[in-house]
Design a protein that fits this description.
Chains A, B: One of its GO terms (cellular component) is cytoplasm. Chains A, B: Keywords: Cobalt, Lyase, Metal-binding, NAD, Nucleotide-binding, Zinc. The structure is a homodimer. Chain A is of the alpha/beta class. In chain A, about 45% of the residues lie in helices and about 15% in strands. The N and C termini of chain A lie far apart (about 45 Å). At the A-B interface, helix 4, helix 5 and strand 8 of A face helix 3, helix 4 and strand 8 of B.
Chain lengths: ~350, ~350
């Protein structure tokens, strides 16, 4: 077992959930609730229980899978369920699932009776390398991602790679995009290592390095006043494309597919508004397109995408602010970019 | 101007809002929003603006007055309004009103885009001596008070007694109950002083003392792990009666009227389950009934009241926990009380 101390809580990389077992046996909590979606309750919960010696002293709260259900209606339903089940301030909530579960479960726990303890057990690659670290909780409102939320740290986070074996290829690729991002913004050798690796069998040490990078950044700047903004590289355009796709496409893009588009567009912005070279852009675009399916960003969606970018949380004084690459492995933030350049970056992606 | 430093923010007692003027002129904020209800926007906003040299650089968000509107639907509406008005993370929200506005406005601000700054300008006696201090934000769900909320400190709190001149007598009495509570749980001489005072013209120094007591308690225990629970004296039964009345009475009890009933019932519990004397109970009951109208707690409401008490946030492991008086001016907490004693305390109140 390896342990990484994050700002105020512990991250456990392990195969036996020992620390959780000890905590549950300590009788610190009056009741334990496990939040899962219909998939994780079927596929991950049995493994989770077996890793905890057939742990069964909990109430299961099941929600529907999918980003479209990370909304206030589900929150209200779960708050009321907690009340019906007589959850008090000494109750514990264990969020077992992907980012939807850990984001929403964290928000619910951090606000129920003004806050109860929660533990995240991310079961997807995406949530292991992204949502697991940094204390962001949140829900979407009207397709605006994480419009409402808190900064609240879980008591513990468990990263158990055994859960990944249950994931379909498309899910693995989605999480892999965040790992690529960590390389692009912070660690060029790691980016090169990932390029040579097989995303279908992500190595535990690569997952560890990704979590380590994110943890380093959020420990320096927990409330995203400055440095933490670099983690949003690819996300200004990526989130907009993701929101649009979710609302309009029959088979919407995954988060990773959307931010991968964002990487290309924002790398294109980086050669105009920062110091990235054309060669580096070509390398990034080539690698991304070798992994992720090409998407067509419709001309008629540009206005909507632009509106979605305007509600991005990084913005200030009405300006859309980007995090851009200075070079592969180094990122800057608070970059103002002209509307024309934003639009031409979308055109650039389409032209590939 | 007097200033009291609370845990992490400043409380200003003053007549000119100088510190706020300086803050607003500093250009620290990209946009300023004022949240008010239909009464405070009409009655208090002009005074507020004049105290700030006719301040007008803000967007007004108006909500409906009354506890029944401190709900998630209004929150959703206001979150969306903030988004429509392009509020970003550098926006400031000023909550101008009573406890409904400061509780709900604080919750909205503490969760919008994971938290923006807010300032409380309490305009009722109740919110000046209670909601103004301690960083509790919250909304009600299904008549369960403050079921969802956060502990988040405002940047500043301004206590301006000029607002009180606009209040009807019943509102003043409602706030006065919290002042009486501060005396009962923490400061017998202050309680005796209040008994000799005129609640219709609350003295600034008495308001100050009340805020000081609350501030002392919440600074020691901001997250209500122990000592802060004494501030709930009268509230376990009081909140239940208030919730029941809100749902069933044509002219519901005010918060102060409800907790005043709670003071009597819980003082009656205190002679059985703590060390309060019968003489002290008689003194408290006599004083409360000289100020507050007698209410009849219906026999058929007892079950519902009991259920409401069971969802009280102080409870642990299914036990209803009370804060009880050891003597006038001293309070203890985490007291378990039998169901029979709870019911007979309601009978005691009815018998007066």
């Amino acid at each position: 077992m390896e342990t990484l101390t994050s700002a105020g809580h512990s991250l456990y990389f392990e195969s036996n959930l020992d620390a959780l077992k000890t905590l549950l046996e300590s009788n610190k909590y009056s009741k334990v609730f496990v939040l899962a979606d219909e998939h994780t309750s079927e596929i991950c919960l049995p493994l989770f229980q077996s890793l905890l010696d057939d742990f069964s002293e909990f109430d299961l709260i099941e929600t529907s899978a999918g980003e479209e259900n990370k909304n206030i209606d589900f929150c209200i339903g779960i708050w009321k369920t907690l009340l019906d089940f007589e959850a008090d301030r000494k109750s514990l909530m264990i969020n077992l699932g992907g980012g939807v579960i850990t984001d929403m479960g964290g928000f619910i726990a951090s606000t129920y009776k003004r806050g109860i303890d929660f533990i995240n057990v991310p079961t997807t690659l995406l949530s292991q390398v992204d949502a697991s670290v940094g204390g962001k909780t949140g829900i979407d409102i009207d397709n605006v991602k994480n419009m409402v939320g808190t900064f609240t740290l879980p008591q513990m986070v468990f990263i158990e790679t055994a859960f990944l074996k249950t994931l379909p290829e498309r899910e693995l690729l989605s999480g892999f995009a965040e790992m690529i991002k960590h390389g692009l913004i912070y660690d060029k050798p790691y980016y090169e290592k990932l390029k040579a690796s097989n995303y279908l069998i992500p190595a535990a040490e690569d997952i560890y390095r990704s979590v380590e990078i994110k943890n380093e950044v959020v420990t320096i700047d927990p409330h995203e006043k400055n440095l933490r903004k670099i983690l949003n590289f690819g996300h200004t355009i990526g989130h907009a494309v993701e929101g649009y796709s979710l609302a309009n496409d029959e088979n919407p893009l995954t988060h990773g597919e959307a931010i991968a588009i964002g990487f290309i567009c924002e790398a294109a912005l980086s050669i105009k508004n920062s110091t990235l070279t054309k060669e580096e852009l070509n390398d990034i675009s080539g690698y991304i397109l070798s992994l992720y399916p090409k998407y067509h960003i419709k001309k008629e969606s540009f206005d909507t995408l632009f509106e979605l970018m305007q509600s991005d949380k990084k913005n200030e004084d009405g300006n859309i602010l980007f995090s851009l690459l200075e070079k592969t492995g180094k990122c800057t933030f608070n970059c103002r970019v002209s509307t024309a350049n934003i639009l031409s970056s979308l055109d650039y992606y389409n032209s590939l």
